[in-house]
Design brief:
Number of strands: 6
Strand content: 25-35%
Strand order of the largest sheet: 1-5-6-4-3-2
Number of helices: 2
Shape: elongated
Largest sheet: 6 strands, mixed
Radius of gyration: 23 Å
Order of helices and strands: HEEEEEEH
Distance between the termini: 95 Å
CATH class of one domain: Mainly Beta
């Protein structure tokens, strides 16, 4: 009589602490309009896209820019500036009303 030993994976059991990273909310090469929120230790601007920290060089807090994702890591992303962010239609309309008065 021969016994077969089944592994934990076959029985559906896992060993140890297994924690995966959720899918990223950004895609490589895609562009986003963002506002830089803070500065990193290396002097890069930091923004968050749906919670994912994104580093943007040559920016400072308060800048509204359009960025393109260049690298996605496990815990963060890196991007480059491709231009100024497009203003929302509501903000543009409010500014026009303010100038007309």
């Amino acid at each position: 009589m021969r016994y077969e030993r089944r592994g934990r994976e076959e029985r559906g059991e896992r060993r140890g602490f297994v924690r995966g990273f959720p899918p990223k909310p950004v895609e490589m090469g895609k562009e986003y309009d963002v506002e830089i929120q803070e500065t990193s230790r290396r002097g890069e601007g930091i923004t968050r896209i749906k919670g994912l920290v994104t580093f943007v060089p040559n920016t400072k807090p308060g800048d509204r820019v359009r960025i393109r994702i260049t690298r996605i890591s496990r815990r963060f992303a890196e991007a480059e500036v491709v231009g100024k962010a497009e203003e929302k239609a509501e903000e543009a309309a409010e500014e026009e009303e303010g100038e007309a008065e």
